[in-house]
Amino acid sequence: MIKVKFITAIYNNLFGTKFGGRPNRETHYKWSLVSLLRMTNANFTCYTSKDEINELSHFFYIKNEISKEQLTLKTFDLNDKSNFIFLDSLKNDSIRKSDRCYEIQYNKFYWFLKEDMSYDYYFWIDAGLSYSGLLPDKYLTYCDNIRGYYDSYFFDNTFLNKLVSKTKDKITILAKDNIRNFWSKTVPQKYYKKYDNTHHIIGGLFGGKKETMNWFTSEFDKNLNKILNETKQIYSEEQIMSLIYQNNKENFITYNFDTWWHNTNGPKGLPIDYFEKNKSFYICLEDILI
Fold this sequence. Notes:
By secondary structure, the chain is an alpha/beta fold. The chain has one domain (4-289): Alpha-Beta Complex (Spore Coat Polysaccharide Biosynthesis Protein SpsA, Chain A). Helices cover 33% and strands 16% of the residues. It has 10 helices and 7 strands. The chain has helices at residues 26-36, 53-63, 87-90, 93-96, 102-110, 157-167, 210-231, 237-247, 274-277, 281-289; strands spanning 4-9, 42-48, 71-75, 121-125, 171-177, 199-209, 252-257. Helix 1 (26-36) links the parallel strand 1 and strand 2. The longest helix is centred in the last third of the chain and has 22 residues, at 210-231.
């Protein structure tokens, strides 16, 4: 039987610190991860801080009866930047106050290297991926006033099996349109074999066989440190991933989308045909199931 491991992280107390991070996400991340754990044929490693591990242990192991075999909680000190030593020297106040933590972004790859490689496939998955902002009402249980916004049966063993079978020997990634619906700048053009910023790779879900993830991690490490060192600027993990994708398209299975919004959460005033012209994020997840 193929063995699959998901790697994720929950750090709830970073907003306003030197690391930067989104505020008020504790409920979101915890209940979303409970929903993702419906992929019971996979095991998960979740990194967190030493200040949070006792509360998370109680929430998952006691309150929700998740087995320690399926979910392993591990502590990691985000002050450890041994894999990207240039980061701290390049940070400014804007970076420190950002709603995205660069230490977590980069460690999506370096945490993979801490695994014992006893699994066949490894995927990173954001702990908060299951929620009403990304999934339309038809996929949410709304089982109560809090949990229901994150509780979904979408991420189950059927999704898991399709994800693995379609990934095969490549790396699965999600790519957002970056032309009609611009999302992000990219790294300097000189790092591209042939410059192309038409799609921006999303870091919320990606992975593949351990051998290909080793290759992807090696490419990420090489490009990240080269670019940080040479440009003296900080780039997101997604910008580095986008570069690697464009330079090595043959190594990837790509699921494309145009907009994060769906028809039950889009802002008022959108043209009536907006969702006919723009593919919602959740539909690229549905594509995995086809």
